[in-house]
Amino acid sequence: MRLSSYNPQERYRRRAADQLAGLLTVLVLVCLSFGIGFWLGGKNSSYQHGVLKDDVEQLSSENTVLQDTITELRAEAQTAIARHDRLKRLYDDAVPEGPMRDLVKLLKRQIDEGRDAKRLAFLIRSARPPSNCSDEQALRFIVSTPAYKGPESRVVLANGALVITGSGLSAVNTEGRAEAWFDPSKAVSVEFVVSGGEAEVKTGVLPMRHSVVIGDREYRINIAEGARSFAKVNYDSCDYP
Length: 241
Prior knowledge:
Blueprint lengths: L7 H87 L4 H14 L4 H10 L10 E6 L12 E3 L4 E6 L2 E3 L5 E5 L5 E7 L4 E6 L3 E7 L2 E9 L4 E10 L2
Antiparallel strand pairs: 1-10, 2-3, 3-6, 4-5, 6-7, 8-9, 9-10
């Protein structure tokens, strides 16, 4: 008969040792995991810090560029405003407001319609107050018609430097036949011939006003209906210009 060598205390000690070893292993693993996690967290924190630092630097650079752009735009805006003000002043000087602007528009329209610019300038200058004018004088001439068979009739002014003649339509009697005298209710053509110059013809119903410059004198002429067959000429002359 053999005696058993089983020792229950030894068994408990081994179990306790195994449990302690397992616990220590778990603790070591936990500590190791914590350490690795802390290390990885530090690495990640450093990476995030680096990323944030790069973002901050990029934003700072973009902000600097934006500020420079804003400064340039402000400078360009100030330059544009100054240019606009200068152009407005030039425009106001070139095209003034009020009656002067209306006059400029009228002159442009007249020239566009074919009016002679020199003639328009003359008319404007003629609008000034006259000075050193002569006394008004009166003459007359016969307005020729298709039925008129008499001699040519004319008025001579400025010592022969200006000749005025006229023609019109014949008046019609009650029988429908043309008379020798002109019909004052119809338009007449008056010709102004300056010595050494071209003839100028004006057409319209009398009375008619006209002016002619000869030398340093301006002749202001008014032509109206006179006695039968005649046109009456009233005129004076003033210094020019």
